[in-house]
UniProtKB/TrEMBL annotation, chain A:
It is found in: Endoplasmic reticulum membrane. InterPro entries: TMEM85/Emc4 (IPR009445). Component of the ER membrane protein complex (EMC). It holds the Pfam family EMC4. The keyword Transcription regulation does not apply. Belongs to the EMC4 family. It comes from Didymodactylos carnosus. This is ER membrane protein complex subunit 4.
From TrEMBL, chain B:
The keyword Metal-binding does not apply. Its main location: endoplasmic reticulum. This is ER membrane protein complex subunit 1. It comes from Didymodactylos carnosus. Belongs to the EMC1 family. The chain crosses the membrane at residues 866-885. Keywords: Endoplasmic reticulum, Glycoprotein, Membrane, Signal, Transmembrane, Transmembrane helix. Residues 12-297 form the EMC1 first beta-propeller domain. It is a single-pass type I membrane protein. It is found in: Endoplasmic reticulum membrane.
């Protein structure tokens, strides 16, 4: 991040592996990270200028290392925001799914079956891809403890599953009655045998 | 090639009533039609020979149940028939006119027994057992008015008189010890005569008379054959001169003709042939029929020719012989085994031209046997035997090598012989179990003791075996023979076995595939038995054991094994026996005593006695009855548990109450405890009551006399919404079953009823009902469900119940025999097949009918019109198409990458 501060050029050779085949190119667009960095640097510069202004140095140069305390705070805040966003995403979706489930009705039709399948598939997929959901934060280089968020995310998906189960229950798909198990009941064992009939 | 020069007579059949009304008393043969008197003189009809058309039918004015009848043909006036039916005397002319009828005086001691016809009178011979007199009452022939009567002293009682006396033309014959008395009927001027007139002429023999028979009877000739106890046979020829005046004064003269045979079981028939009186004597020796043809001359009898015919199988003695000589001389015989045999006599000897097993209309028990495994299937069974690893390996290698060799040999054989032995191969293939075990062998036992093996797929008789000395049991006035499946075809190393038991304490065991007797398992028991059962366990040779209870209530086993081996030790065994004389059920507990190996005592534990009502039948559950589900799922998804008590029997009783109203009672008796679980009374109801007891329900049909219709009642027993014990059932459990009952009106009468059986009992159960009009109807259980509601609720609709309507609507789709009507069906046998959806039905009575039914449709099989070719080609096309599509797709992406 400090390298960005000293070279605030808008053009530079990219060192991303995807563009290694090219000999050169001009990136006229700020990358997402660069944009973030310049926004941060402008506030940084204004903060530093009020405190340590040294005319002997060229513009933008400081031979002192600036402690990066505020940036760290800001990162953490953003990190928390992002991770909470992801963690609470399933819970936010719950009302929509409730409406879906209610709209589908309890009768058996193609739509209602598809919705029930979707209700089950989505949270299960989400639970299995729990780490990839938080991958984006890690890829942005933000490192922090997301275990709690993951738990929240997991619980949120569980509410979805609970909704799906409730839907199944109200549609009568759950084997919760004795009648659902009657086909598996063993035939009764007879404790006596009888033989007989008319005497000849 | 059909010979069109002779008129074609299409075969026809007329089925008379199945009850007493259809029982033929006498047939009188006329030129073009036969006059049939049936039901002890209650029905008279003529049937034309050519097409079986019934020309007319007459019934006497008074309807009652006669006990005795005598029918004679008036020899002076050959178109007139006189019928004596208890107290009614009536005359019928051959063109269907009732000439007159006379009600005879009725007295409890006076029994009208015989009829005679003279030129002017019809004489009724009756016995007054009170004053020991035989009374001859003369009725005028034209109007039937009584003119006079005479009586003679008589020493014989009613039964003896019935047995030893008969009439021929206008003479009355009676045998007493070694005398044959001949009462020459008094003449027309007998009105003035006194009783002294009737003085018998007596023929005296050297030995007592065993029987005698009038074998020929015309206006001028009578032949009487007398058989003595010592088997001597004497033929008497009675004759009188035919005079132009046709006066009755001419008395009969008789001569004794030569005694000519000593064969014990010979039968005789006499016919006119080219102006000569021909007497045919026939007797059977082993598998051969012998005929002797005699010419009866004026005063002598001359042997003219002998014939012998080889029979295709053992048929026993001849029961009945009729000789015809209209165009070509023919003899029709009924044999001991019920066979109908027609013999044609020609210049070069006699030949058998027709043989029919008529005994198949008298089947008393039937059992289906699975066909044996094919050799290939057996080898597979063999392949996976052995214990050690090496021995198993060697066994597999050797069997697989032999399979390969036999396959190669089969192919070589097919190439060399092609179609030469195709018939043989097809016949062999018919005896091998098919993929779904649909085809079986039906072993049927007939009342005459002939046992048949019938292939179900074709109805062909595979084998027959005639047991000469065989008498069936009487099971509530129905003949019955216990037939047991001793060893099934599953144990392929041993031959399958079936056993039958007859009243003369004989056990016959045979192979149900070949009919061959198994000599070491046939025996005559040294004791009388009360009941025979088959054991539940199998012995070392995989066969079941017969359990026999003798008169002293000791239990024997055949073949002799310890009782523990035959019954197992886990469940206690109870035995119930019904004694007809005491009208009582006795329940016994079978205590297996280790010390006494083969016979043990029965301990009485309960007793149910019926008073003022007679038990008319006992019905048990089918041994093949399977209950798959313990309960019924209701509309609210709760479970109503069935009361499935395997120890229940249905007892049908009938009686008359104190108001003289007939009633029928039905009880469900638990045979372990003797408790009655269900009792139903129906007043003004007539048997026969047909009962089905299956699973937890009961269905019975009866005739309602009040409304004059057939009704069916179904009842189901339920334990309730909870189960007392989910894992086991004991009759001692304190369960009071709930009962649901509904009654239905049947559109037809019922002659037999049965429920379908399937292997696992998953499939719905249908009722197969045989009706008097020849239909076999398959009624879905849903229609007779006792839970059909009177007013439908949402819950009932959810469950799929139909609203109750008393009338059972029988759709013509339910008739499983379409227009192949089968009559007088006595019983229906259902059997499970390898397919759960399919149940086989075999109905027997006068006709036999076999089919397969699908109570829940063919849910486990593809439809017949399933297009295998289309599916196969479509699959191949998809596989090939997907392969090419993949190639194209990869080419396309490669090309795209190069752009």
């Amino acid at each position: 991040m400090s390298t960005n501060l000293v070279s605030p050029t808008s053009y530079r050779s990219s060192h991303t592996p995807a563009v290694t085949r090219r000999k050169w190119f001009i990136d006229l667009q700020f990358r997402k990270s660069d944009r973030l960095a310049t926004a941060m640097s402008s506030s940084l510069v204004s903060a530093s200028s009020s405190n340590n202004y040294d005319y002997s140095s060229p513009v933008g140069y400081s031979d002192q290392r600036i402690p990066d305390v505020t940036a760290q705070d800001e990162d953490e805040r953003l990190f928390a925001k992002r991770s909470w966003d992801i963690a609470l995403q399933p819970i936010k979706q719950l009302p929509m799914n409730l409406i879906f489930a209610w709209m589908a009705g309890n009768s058996f039709s193609l739509m209602s079956i598809m919705i029930v399948v979707m209700l089950f598939m989505k949270p299960i997929q989400a639970i299995f891809s729990i780490s990839s959901a938080f991958q984006s934060i890690e890829s942005e280089g933000m490192i922090g403890n997301v275990a709690f968020h993951k738990l929240i995310y997991f619980l949120g998906n569980l509410t979805h599953l609970a909704l799906a189960l409730y839907k199944c229950q109200s549609m009568g798909l759950l084997p919760t009655y004795a009648s659902d198990w009657i086909a598996f009941a063993e035939p009764q064992l007879n404790l006596e045998t009888t033989l007989g009939g008319l005497t000849y | 090639m059909r010979n069109y020069s002779t008129p074609l007579v299409s075969p026809w059949r007329r089925v008379l009533e199945s009850n007493a009304l259809g029982k033929i008393d006498r047939i009188i043969w006329f030129e073009n039609e036969a006059l049939v008197v049936s039901g002890n003189g209650r029905r008279v009809r003529t049937i034309r020979y050519t097409e079986g058309l019934e020309l007319w039918e007459l019934a006497p004015p008074v309807i009652h149940e006669p006990k005795h009848s005598h029918i004679i043909k008036n020899h002076r006036d050959s178109g007139t028939i006189h019928i004596l039916s208890d107290d009614l005397l009536w005359s019928v002319s051959s063109y269907g006119e009732m000439l007159w009828s006379v009600e005879l005086p009725s007295k409890s001691t006076l029994k009208n027994l015989f009829l005679l016809s003279t030129s002017q009178f019809v004489v009724v011979i009756s016995l007054d057992s009170n004053i020991n007199q035989l009374i001859f009452t003369y009725h005028e022939k034209v109007h039937g008015t009584k003119t006079s009567s005479k009586s003679i002293r008589w020493s014989l009682d009613l039964n003896e008189t019935k047995k030893s006396c008969t009439t021929a033309n206008d003479i009355f014959l009676c045998s007493i010890k070694n005398h044959l008395s001949i009462y020459n009927s008094p003449a027309s001027n007998s009105i003035q005569s006194t009783t002294d007139d009737i003085v018998p002429e007596q023929l005296t023999f050297s030995d007592s008379i065993e029987n005698y028979k009038v074998i020929y009877e015309t206006n001028t000739n009578i032949l009487v054959l007398v058989t003595l106890i010592n088997n001597d046979k004497v033929l008497y020829k009675f004759f009188r001169q035919q005079q132009a005046t046709s006066s009755d004064n001419s008395n009969w003269e008789y001569i004794q003709l030569e005694i000519f045979t000593k064969y014990p079981n010979s039968v005789y028939s006499v016919a006119m042939e080219k102006g000569n009186l021909i007497l045919i004597q026939a007797y059977a020796t082993e598998q051969k029929l012998n005929f002797q043809k005699y010419t009866v001359n004026e005063r002598s009898i001359v042997l003219s020719r002998t014939y012998a015919v080889e029979l295709p199988e053992l048929m026993g003695d001849i029961e009945y012989l009729q000789y015809h000589s209209n165009n070509s001389p023919l003899a029709t015989l009924r044999m001991n085994d019920g066979s109908l045999v027609v013999i044609k006599f020609g210049e070069h000897g006699a030949e058998l031209i027709l043989h029919r097993d008529e005994s198949l209309s008298a089947i008393v028990s039937a059992e289906a046997f699975d066909l044996s495994l094919s050799i290939g299937q057996m080898r597979i069974e063999e392949e996976f035997g052995g214990t050690g690893m090496l021995s198993m390996f060697i066994r597999r290698i050797t069997t697989q090598t032999s399979q390969l060799i036999s396959f190669v040999l089969k192919i070589v054989d097919f190439i060399i012989h092609r179609h030469k032995n195709q018939d043989f191969m097809e016949k062999q293939a018919a005896l091998v179990r098919d993929e779904f075990n649909l085809n079986k062998i039906l072993v049927v036992v007939t009342s005459v003791g002939k046992v048949f093996g019938i292939l179900t797929q074709s109805g062909n008789i595979l084998w027959k075996q005639f047991y000469n000395d065989f008498t069936p049991f009487d099971n509530f006035n129905q003949p019955s023979v216990p037939l047991f499946n001793i060893r099934t075809a599953a144990h392929y190393t041993h031959q399958p076995l079936a056993s039958i038991y007859s009243q003369n304490t004989q056990i016959k065991t045979f192979n149900p595939y070949t009919g061959d007797n198994v000599a070491n398992l046939c025996t005559t028991l040294p004791y009388q038995i009360r009941r025979v059962f088959v054991s539940s366990q199998i012995d070392e040779e995989f066969k079941k054991v017969l359990l026999l209870i003798d008169k002293k209530n000791k239990v024997h086993t055949f073949p002799s094994v310890p009782l523990i081996r035959a019954l197992g030790t886990t469940t206690p065994t109870y035995i119930y026996l019904f004694d007809k004389t005491e009208q009582a059920f006795n329940g016994y507990h079978l205590t297996v005593n280790d010390n006494e190996q083969t016979s043990t005592d029965l301990q009485e534990v309960w007793r149910v006695v019926f008073k003022n009502e007679d038990v008319v039948n006992i019905h048990t559950r089918l041994s093949t009855d399977r209950v798959h589900s313990n309960g019924i799922v209701l509309g609210d998804r709760s479970v109503l548990y069935k009361y499935v008590n395997p120890n229940l029997i249905a007892v049908v009783t009938e009686g008359v109450d104190y108001q003289k109203v007939p009633f029928v009672n039905l009880y469900l008796v638990d045979t372990v405890t003797g408790s009655i679980k269900l009792a139903r009374t129906h007043k003004k109801v007539k048997p026969p009551v047909h009962v089905i007891l299956a699973e937890n329900w009961l269905l019975y049909t009866y005739y309602n006399q009040r409304y004059r219709r057939y009704e069916a009642v179904s009842a189901a027993l339920f334990e309730g919404y909870t189960q007392y014990n989910f894992s086991s059932f004991s009759s001692f459990d304190p369960i009071v079953p709930m009962t649901e009952t509904k009654a239905y009106i049947l559109p037809y009468g019922v002659t037999a009823i049965q429920v379908t059986t399937t292997e696992k009992g998953i499939t719905a159960k249908d009722i197969i009902m045989a009706t008097p009009n020849g239909m076999l109807i398959e009624i879905p259980w849903m229609f007779i469900d006792p839970r059909r509601p009177l007013d439908m609720t949402q819950m009932d609709r959810e469950e799929g119940l139909i609203m109750y309507t008393p009338e059972l609507m029988i759709n013509y789709e339910y008739v499983i025999n379409y227009y192949q009507f089968v009559y007088n069906i006595r019983s229906i046998h259902t059997m499970a097949t390898g397919l759960e959806s399919t149940s086989a039905v075999f109905a027997y009575g006068l006709d036999l009918f076999y089919t397969r039914v699908f109570p829940s449709r063919l849910f486990d099989q593809l439809k017949d019109d399933f297009d295998f070719m289309f599916i196969g080609w479509a699959t191949i096309a998809f596989v090939v198409g997907s392969y090419f599509a993949r190639r194209f797709a990869s080419n396309y992406t490669t090309k795209k990458a190069w752009k």
